[in-house]
Amino acid sequence: MISLDVRTRTDDDVRDVDTVDFFTRELPDLIASRGELAAPGAAELGCAPFAFSTPRGAWTLSLQEGSLRIEAGQQRATAVVALRDEELADIVNDLATPMTHVTGGTLRMERGQLGAFLDWWVVLRALVDGRPAYTSGTVTFRDRKGAPLDLRRTFTLDDDPAELAHFLAQAGFLHVTGVFTPEEMASVDADMTAAGPTYARDDGRSWWARTADGKEMAVRLQRFEQHSPTAAELLTDERFLAIGGLTDDEYVASTTVEALEKPLGVVEGISDVPWHKDCSLGRHAYRCSSLTVGISVTGADDVSGQLRVVAGSHRALVQPAFVRPEWGLPVVDLPTTTGDVTVHCSCTLHMAQPPVERPRRVMYTGFSLADPDNRARAGEAAIRRVRESSYKNVSQKPGHIAGT
After folding, report:
1. Which of 40, 53, 64, 338 is 20 to 30 A distant from 391 in Cα terms?
2. 146: helix, coil or strand?
């Protein structure tokens, strides 16, 4: 059985967090019971004393002689982040991450840099979620026979589905060639050109960028299926649906598709998103692993905006944005031709290289895990708050940073 479902929470699990109780009782208890899951990772990251400053006091986390410690105050901390009580609760509940505050313009580092917050976020997640913080060498790659996995392997839909599923589970991504025809992609390409002028800044359904020559253009067209009969048909095509049936999970196909333009020389706006996980703004424990599917309208390589992934990062508790070379996880380029499909787990680190010679066009859609029991959404208020704050200062407001 192959499953990518790593969810451990539903929205019913969102809880109130008392700041003082968390730092004086809950966190010390977690350090005592789960410290061995976090301390080796903290040591490898070189975590220096870090403080959380809140309206109800400050507390410092540190690693001393291989063990985690917590103490009141922030005098010894080399880095300090200021969080309101509700912001701390969102971090604890996995509704937000440090990148939520970066994206929303709400990060308040009173001392030190973002990197320290990201490192200690990994430690905190290990303690709260009971997951081991990643240490180099703990993620390996094997094929179905136990031999080293060829991470540059490509597939077709005619290959054994069990092979595709195993590779996806091991590597966190797939490259499937020749899924859609050049004729289908030519139709989509024409529809993108025709649809562009129907979008406008601040319409709530597009992202915009400005290029070095001063041109402003929509670089992400949401609900593109409403403008492209071909794209709409692909969402119900058996070739697309086959991807959602590779594992033993119950996946639900998206009913929408986004069309992305990757122009040359972007100087302003969100076009090529740097290294990130699609759960980089939070909710990993509630929805991972969903599957993001990229459909290459035009081919892509190292000069035209190809996708890059960090193999195995979906199996590693690491920071949700940026890449640290000391992890030792392989970075894999995914050059594609027209009609190819890429698939990556929502918690696989990925990015797109900015095109430097040729622009790129691509569509993104995907699959989400079915709600396990359709239970009520008890945490909607907290979820709505974090989403609103995440994009308060961003002109484009995506549901999540996904699909590069």
Report:
1. 53
2. coil
By DSSP bridging, strand 79-82 and strand 50-54 are parallel
Neighbours of 381 (CB within 10 A): 9
Q: Helices 114-129 and 27-45 sit at what angle, rounded to 10 degrees?
A: 130
Q: In tens digits, what is the pLDDT along the chain, a chain of 404 residues?
A: 899 999 999 999 999 999 999 999 999 999 999 999 999 999 999 999 999 999 999 999 999 999 999 999 999 999 999 999 999 999 999 999 999 999 999 999 999 999 999 999 999 999 999 999 999 999 999 999 999 999 999 999 999 999 999 999 999 999 999 999 999 999 999 999 999 999 999 999 999 999 999 999 999 999 999 999 999 999 999 999 999 999 999 999 999 999 999 999 999 987 778 899 999 999 999 999 999 999 999 999 999 999 999 999 999 999 999 999 889 999 999 999 999 999 999 999 999 999 999 999 999 999 999 987 643 333 344 344 444 433 333 333 333 334 45
DSSP state of 235: T
Instruction: State the burial class of residue 57 (Cβ atoms within 10 Å of its Cβ: 0-12, 13-18, 19+).
Output: middle
